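user:
I keep going back and forth on a fold encoding question. Separate attempts, laid side by side, tell us more than any discussion would. Would you put together a sequence-and-structure record for a protein of your own picking? Write it directly below this note and I will take it from there.

assistant:
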Amino acid sequence: MLEIVLLFSIPVLYAIANLADKYLVSEGDEEDSDPGALLALSGTIAGLFAVPIGVFALLTGASFGGLADIVMLVGIGFLYYAAIWIYLDMLKVEETSNVVSWFQTIPLFGLIGALIVLGEHPEWYHVLAIIFLVLGSFLLSWKDGEMKKTVMFWMTVAALLIAAYDVLFANYGRTIDEVAAISLMLIGKAVAGYSLLLLDKKARKGFWIGLTTKLKAQFVSESVNTLADIAMYASILLMPLVLAQGAAALQPLFVLIGAVVMGAIFPQVSEGGEGEDFRKKVIAITLMIMGGILLT
């Protein structure tokens, strides 16, 4: 039952966070919508979640493993934030569903990484699922007869970075207690966020501006995203990597539905697209859902 709840909550929570991210990078001035500023806040929220979870882990005697495990699980937070920086940057120039669709290529890299590092062998239907996911991603990103090469390149890089993060998290997190691994994952993101505050003047300035102009929206967005991360990485600890990553394949469906609703309220998150464009999105998302079903 827990596994089902986790798998269903992953795409729903990430979709809500995606739409909130689109609002945040589209609203306000350049400084408070800077990716570094948003990631600094994300790290702060992750730190707030990390404290009670970490304390609970310590009080219950959870194993945190050796120093190497701790350093790796905290250090790879920078890898994850590099990917999210790219994603937030692409949201400034492209529709949400077109950007998010490229995250559906993560299982492609995840399958390879899981095979090499974790020894998890994919079934034939896993390979077929990847084909559906990639085709759907390509179709969503094909606009006016032309693939946006910049979005395609950078979001592929982001997907590769997140897949590497997932594989490394599984490799080290599965050797220690689950609650300890989750707390270290959150601490890693907090450290990465705080580092941006210290080292990036633009991120620091935008962070403080954002706190005074749209704190409520930022807090909701990053809290939902952190809850999605907890569900995602708890799933990675409890089940095969490809299953956890495949659950996220339903994410674009909820993004599209949410964008249609939110577009009527906030025009800056509108997905546009009527008639043929909307039908193309439905076909693309259907392919990705089929891929997600095959993976799960």
